[in-house]
Design a protein that fits this description.
The structure is a homotetramer of 349-residue chains. The first copy, chain A, has helices at residues 3-8, 20-29, 50-53, 87-98, 115-121, 130-135, 141-149, 159-173, 202-205, 219-231, 264-274, 319-333; strands at residues 10-15, 35-41, 78-81, 103-106, 137-138, 153-155, 181-187, 210-211, 237-243, 250-256, 281-283, 298-305, 308-315. By secondary structure, the first copy, chain A, is an alpha/beta fold. In chain A, the strands form 2 sheets. Chain A has a 7-stranded mixed beta sheet with strand order 8-9-7-10-13-12-11. In chain A, strands 2-1-3-4-6-5 form a 6-stranded parallel beta sheet, with helices on both faces. In chain A, helix 2 (20-29) links the parallel strand 1 (10-15) and strand 2. The longest helix of chain A is centred in the middle third of the chain and has 15 residues, at 159-173.
C-alpha cells in the first residue's frame, strides 16, 4: 500500500469475507486504484491470515480476519456486507446508526424487496430495519444511477435479477414489451455459494443439468417487483432457474410478445440506444457467458422466434451479478468513474 | 460370436459407423443378446479395423470398416443409416429397392418431415425418395408403436424432438395443453457431432453457454409437425436450443398455459397414466440429465409457475435421442421386447 | 424378476447401498443375468425406497433400504460390503460367523493390508478380525484368480492400486522392471465419495488441479505391499495422487527403469502376452480414461522416455476400480465367466 | 485512450492476434496503464474489427486487424509475435532489421533453443536467423532478469518449461537437487491452441485424460537445455505431458532425489528465500492451478515421498505460461515495475 493511495483512497470494510462474494471483492479490490481494504471480518476464521484461507491472495494482502461486529468497521468509508440475509440487515442497521457517514452496500437480499414481500419470501418475520429498507436504493446503476448516488444503503441486486433486468427492464420501460414474461435462467454453480452441499457436489453436478426451485426461487419476486417498478406497470414473471456444470456465468433466456407493431429490430435499436454510453453493458451478436467471464460486463441481444421475441443476457454471476456490481456502486457513491478498478474484458478461453 | 446367437440373431448393418451415433450403436449392439453386427461402413476409414479407430471397442469387435454402398448390406436384416441427410435417403432408397426384405432405420433427418418442409429446411431441393418418405414411420415408440411395427423404413427422431415430444405430445393429445409452446432446450456438446469445429472446441465450449440458431434450428419444424400430428391440431412452437458444457444429455424446459380448468396435478396424473407401462419413460420428482446418462431412459415432470406450466424432460441425446431409440425401434420391428439390450439405469455419477 | 432367474440366480446383499460404490453395484447388478438383488442396507435411509433416493433406478428396483445389521443378510449367497473401513470388517466378521456359506466381497480397505500395516495406516488400532484377514484373498482377478476362487472373503482392491498394479505387477513379476517406482496418479472426483466436502465442491474443483496427500495416501502401502508380493521382491513406491475435474476415471502414469537389456518393446510384448486372454485388460496404443468410462475394462501401454520407461493405465475408478471388479470377483467365486453382466465397451463420448 | 497515456505509453504491436496468446495479450494490455495497442495483425482476419472477432473485447478496442508484414509495425516500441514457429523468426528478423529501436518478444518457439536443437526438433532445417538467435534472451524474468533487460529479442518461454523451471531451476542452481528429473505435467486444453482439432474437440476431451507425445514433445529439449544452463551442469529430463479437461492451467509434478543430506525443509527454505521478493512466484502450502487462474502468478511447493522429493508448480498457461510473462518481459525491457498491468490474484472459483 503506498502512502499516496492510503491518503486518498476509500477505506473499505468487508463483513463476511470468506464466501465467494467476499473473496471476489478481495480479488477485485486488491487491484482497485482508489480503494484500501482496511478490515475484513469472518466469524468462522477470526484471527486467521486471509491469504492462508484464500491462497489466491498470497502476496497481496497481509490482513487477518476480524470478528464480525459493528465496531470492527470504525473508520470505514464504505462497508460491503456479504453476510447471510437477516444477519446482514442487523449489522447494517447497527453499524449505520453507529457510523452515520459510512456507506453500506449490502450483497444479501435484505434490502431488495419491500417489507411485505420480504416477510413472505424470507422466513415469515418482519423486516428487522424497515426504516432503512424504505431508504435503500436498488443498486443496478444502469437503471437507477441517480438514486444510488444519493443513498446511504445500497441493495446490491441478486445475480438472476441483474441478468433478467438488464435484458428486459429498459424495453419494458419504453413500452416495447409488456409481458407476461417467461424467464429461463441458467447459472454456473458458484451461485450456490461456498458451503459444500449435495446439490453442488462435483460428481453430482458435473455432466448434470436440472431446473430447481421451480416457482419457488426467491429471486422471482425480486425480478417481478423491480421489472414492474422500472416499467411503471405490473409485470407477470414466470422464473425458472437451472444449474449448469460450469463455475461462473448466468445466461438468461427470456420470452415475451412484443407490443403491437414492435419488431425485433426495434428492440435491438433500443438496446443500442439505451446502452450506448454504458461501460459495461453491450448489445452483441452472440450472447455467451464465456465472453464476460471474470469481468463486470453484460452482453444482451434479442431474436424473433415464432410468436415470441427471445431475449438473452450473459453476465458473470460473481462480478456483474454480485461483487463487481457492488464495486461499481461504490465507485458511483464516491464520485468516481463507475468502471475504475473493474475488469471489462472477459477471460476467454 | 457363439453359433446359437448367430443362428437366431438379427443381422445388422450400419452405414456410417465412425460418427457418434454410429459408435454408440456399436457400443450398445456389441452387448445386445439378439443382434449380430455384420457390416459397418465408413468411406473415410474403409479397410481400417473398427477397434483401432474406436479404441473403446478393443477386444469386442474384429471387423473392419467397409465402403458405404448398397451392396455392402446384402444379407442384413436391418440397416441403420448414420449418414448425413441427403446421402442417407439416397442409400436407403437404393438399398431398399435392392433388398426388399430388409428393414431400414434412418438416423438422419431425411424421413422425419413431409416433402414440403424437407425442401424448405434441408437445402431447397425436392426429397430424393418421396414415395419412401410417404410410407416411413416416425420412430417414437411411446407415441407411434403400432405404425412403426409395420414399417419398412423408420425415421428415427431428432434428439431435441424426442425430448420435447415425450414431455408435451401426450398432454396435447389429451387436450390438457394446447400451446403456443415455448421450448427452451439445453444440449450437451456431443449433439454437435464428431467433426471438430469452432463451436465445439473445448476451450471455447467449456465454461461457456449460449443460445444458438434461434428461430432457425432444423429441429423446430420437426417438433411442430409431430406435436401437431399427435395432438390432432396445429401447434405453434418457439424453439430455442442452447449448448451446455457437458458431453451428453438434453434437458428440455417447455412452457405453455394449461387448458381451462386443468391443474398441474392433472398433468402429472396424465404422465403417470400414459407412461405407466413404459420401460423407458418415467415421471419423476427431479428431472436431471445425470439420471439418464448412458441409458435409453427419459424422465419427465411438470410444475406450476405463475400463469404457465413448466414441463421438463431429460434424455441422453445419443441414446434415447439417437442410437438407443434406433435399437428400441429395431427390437419393435423384429417382435422383441423393446428393452432388450438397452441400458435402463443412468450412469451416476 | 422372472421365476427362472430367481431360481438359479446368485442372491445378493449389499451393505451400505447409498454411496457411490453401492449405487454402482445396483446399476450393474440390475442388468446382471445371474444375480438377484435381495437386500440393500443403509442406516441413513432405512425404510426409504431405493429408487427414490437414487432416481436413476426408477422403474428398475422396488426394494427399500433395510437397516445395516448382519441379520439382514440371511439367505444371501454373497454380500458386498460398501461400509466405511472398520465398520466393514466388523460386519463381515459377524455375518460370516453367522452365515458360513455366504461369500463376502469387501469394498472397504479392511482386508487389503496385513495387520501391521492396517494398524499403522488405519487409525492405530489392531485389526478387528485378524483371523479373517489372514484368509482373505486380494481381489485382483488378472493377478490372483486361483486364490480368489477358493476364498470366502475377498478384499476388493483400492482404485489407485488397481490401476498401478495392472500396469506394473506383471512386469515386475517377470523381472522386466524392478523399481524404485514413481506412481503419479490422476483421479476423477467420484473417488472422493458421495459426501459433500470442500475438496469436492464443484466451484472449487472444476477448473482446478492439485496433488493431495503427497506421501500420506492410504493407497500407497497397498500398492507397495501387493506389488512386492506379486513380484516376489520388495518394491519401493513413491505414490502421488492428483484430483482432476472429471467424474470418473483414473489415469496412472508410472516411471521406472527397465531391467538391464530390457526394451520398451519387450514390455509391450509382455503386456500382449500376459493380457492376451483377458476379457477386460488390453494393451492399446493410446491410453485415455474416456475409452474405459462406465466399463470394467482397463487399458495399458508403455513408452521409452529418456532413462525411464513410462507406464500408463486407464480404468474407471467406480467400475474396474471398485464395483465392477467386485462383480468380476463374484462371477469368479460362483463359477461363471468373469465378464457376465459387466460392460466392456467404454462410453465415448 | 486518453491523451496523457498516449503520450507516455509504450506503443505496442501484435503479430498474429487471433489465436489464444494474441487475444490474451489484448485482454491484458487493454487494461495496462503504460501500454497503447497500436497495431494488431492477422492474415486470416485482415480488415475485420477485432472486437467482432473477439467479442469479449466489445467496447474496449476499435481497431481492425491489419495484414501481417513487417511494415505494419512501423512506429511500435515493442512487437509481440504470436505467429507459428518459423514464420515468427522470419518476421522478427525482417522487422528488427527494419526497425532497429524496436524490441521484440517472441511467443513462438523460434528463439528458445540453440541452432542444433532447433534443427532437430523443429522441422530439420537450419534456423532462419542464427545471428538473432545467438543474441536472444530467454525470457524467464525470475531466473534471467539482467540478461532480458538488455536484450532486443526476448524468447518468451514455453508454457511447460515455465512451470518446470520455476519449480526446479533455482534448486538445481543451488545444488539441492541434480537429477535425473521426471517431469509429469498436466495441462488445460487451451494449450492446444485455438484451431479446432480431434484432440481438443469437447466431447472427446471432456471427461477424458491421457498422456500424449510421450518422449516426443518439443518442450522436452527446452526444459532440459535451460535447466542445464541455469544449473551449470547437464540435466537429464524425462518429460511427459498430459491433457486435462479444463480450460487453463498447468500443474507440473516433478520427481528427483535430493542431493545428499538435503531435506525437503531445505528445499522449502530455498523457495522462500529465492522467491521472497518476487511479485508473482510464491511458495504455498497447497499447489492448485485454480489459485493462479487468469493471473500471472506461480505457486510452488515440495514434499518428501519415499526416496524422492516431489516438486509441484501451478501456473496459468496463457498468462505466466505465455502472454502475461510476455508483458512482464515488456515491463522489464522498458524499465517499469514488472508487475504493472498484470493480475496477481487468481480467479477463484
Amino acid at each position: 500500500m503506498n502512502y499516496l493511495k492510503a491518503m486518498t483512497s476509500i477505506k473499505v470494510g468487508i463483513a463476511g469475507g470468506t464466501g465467494y462474494t467476499g473473496s471476489e471483492l478481495l480479488r477485485l479490490l486488491s487491484g482497485h486504484p482508489k480503494a484500501e481494504i482496511c478490515v475484513v471480518t469472518s466469524n468462522s476464521c477470526t484471527g486467521k491470515k486471509i491469504a492462508v484461507e484464500l491462497p489466491a491472495l498470497t502476496g497481496q494482502l497481509s490482513l487477518s480476519f476480524e470478528k464480525t461486529e459493528s465496531d470492527s468497521f470504525d473508520g470505514c468509508d464504505v462497508v460491503f456486507s456479504c453476510l447471510p440475509h437477516g444477519a446482514s440487515a442487523e449489522l447494517v442497521a447497527k453499524a449505520s446508526a453507529q457510523f452515520p457517514k459510512t456507506k453500506f452496500i449490502d450483497l444479501s437480499a435484505d434490502f431488495r424487496l419491500d417489507g411485505a414481500s420480504y416477510k413472505q419470501w424470507y422466513g415469515g418475520h418482519d423486516h428487522p430495519a424497515p426504516d432503512l429498507l424504505s431508504r435503500a436504493a436498488y443498486g443496478l446503476p444502469e437503471l437507477n444511477r441517480a438514486t444510488i448516488a444519493k443513498a446511504n444503503v445500497v441493495a446490491n441486486p441478486g445475480c438472476y435479477p441483474t441478468g433478467a433486468l438488464l435484458a428486459l427492464a429498459p424495453l419494458a420501460k419504453l413500452g416495447l414489451v409488456s409481458g407476461p414474461y417467461i424467464v429461463d435462467s441458467k447459472s454456473g454453480v458458484s451461485g450456490a455459494g461456498k458451503e459444500p452441499s449435495r446439490g453442488a457436489h462435483f460428481p453430482d453436478t458435473n455432466e448434470a443439468l436440472r431446473p430447481y426451485n421451480v416457482g419457488k426461487h426467491r429471486h422471482a419476486p425480486e425480478i417481478a417487483m423491480h421489472l414492474s417498478a422500472f416499467a411503471g406497470k405490473t409485470a407477470s414473471v414466470s422464473f425458472t432457474p437451472h444449474l449448469v456444470p460450469m463455475n461462473r456465468g448466468i445466461l438468461t433466456t427470456a420470452y415475451a410478445k412484443p407490443a403491437p407493431g414492435v419488431t425485433v429490430e426495434d428492440i435491438r435499436a433500443a438496446y443500442d440506444k439505451v446502452y450506448a454510453d454504458e461501460p459495461f453493458v453491450h448489445h452483441v451478436e452472440e450472447v455467451d457467458v464465456k465472453n464476460v467471464r471474470g469481468s463486470n460486463s453484460a452482453h444482451v441481444n434479442a431474436w424473433q422466434n415464432g410468436d415470441f421475441v427471445v431475449f438473452a443476457s450473459a453476465i458473470d454471476n460473481l462480478v456483474k451479478g454480485a461483487s463487481g456490481q457492488a464495486i461499481q456502486n461504490m465507485n458511483l457513491l464516491f464520485g468516481h468513474a463507475e468502471d475504475i478498478g473493474l475488469p471489462k474484458v472477459g477471460i476467454t478461453p
